[in-house]
Amino acid sequence: MINKNIIISPSILSADFSNLDYELKKIEKSNAKWVHLDIMDGHFVPNITFGSTLIKCIREKSNLFFDAHLMIENPHKYIEKFAQCGCDLINFHYEATKDKTSDVINQIKNFNKKVGISIKPQTNVKLIEKYFDKVDMVLIMTVEPGFSGQKFMDFCLPKIEFVKKHAPNNILIQVDGGINDKTARLVKQAGANVLVSGNFVFKAKDLNLAVKSLL
Question: What predicted TM-score, i.e. pTM, was given to this entire model?
Fold first, then answer.
């Protein structure tokens, strides 16, 4: 049975970059309404992916909700670029901002974009509790950010439960890392309502069936 309260956000990091137009159309035809954009700078995480130029190109080809996950240092320097290229939600890492966290939240809001705040697996979720009522979404990473295909870290589940208990009822709780049909059940039980999945979705024979199995 499809749970309409759950949002699936396939990560194009696992897609075929030589044919992104086709990959986006597959997502649009599925029960996924979002697409997850992993932006990595090679400094905050040990990998480099893509930036605002590519997002601007695919924005012209898709009506999906663009869920941008900034895994970069000094995100405040780049918020304007990611807002202007067509991202609907801009998600930044607390570890990359700390004393500038409130400023980055306000900066994103000033561009009329939804705001997400992320934490790595080893970061204490209580450090971002004071921002729960200022953001639209909290992202709990269940793998170390940087590469797709990693194993799900189940010790992160209590963090999801903490956000569910202490954040406003309308907040989105996103989980990213090692999400498949089995781990999806665990994170939904903990309170997550936005699931990012890369390899499981894009390596499946049928993307739509893979998406449905996460709902």
Answer: 0.96
